[in-house]
Design goal:
Layout (H helix, E strand, L loop, with lengths): L2 H6 L3 H18 L4 H12 L4 H8 L3 H21 L6
Helix pairs in contact: 3-5, 4-5
């Protein structure tokens, strides 16, 4: 293997950690309301701006910001209930 390939290779432990984290977050999202899941999906998974999310949901931008704040708080609480500690 070339040195560049070795340097860029992902360690198996990193892949396992990423997979476990993905499952944990997916499970925790089930605890959230549909509004909170949707705002997180749009902002973080689809990487939309607050303005884009507000337009998509037909809500004011400040409402989208507020909803995202409370959605992230709820997600953090759901993750903590599953034993995940924030770094």
């Amino acid at each position: 293997m070339a040195p560049d390939t070795l340097h860029n290779a992902t360690a198996p432990d990193d892949d396992v950690e990423r997979l476990l984290t993905s499952h944990l977050v997916t499970d925790a999202l089930d605890d959230l309301t549909e509004q909170h899941r949707e705002i997180i999906r749009l902002l973080y998974h689809l990487e939309r701006s607050v303005a884009q999310v507000a337009a998509h949901l037909h809500i004011p931008p400040d409402t989208a910001k507020s909803r995202s704040y409370y959605a992230l708080r709820a997600l953090k609480k759901a993750l903590a209930a599953r034993g995940h500690r924030a770094n």
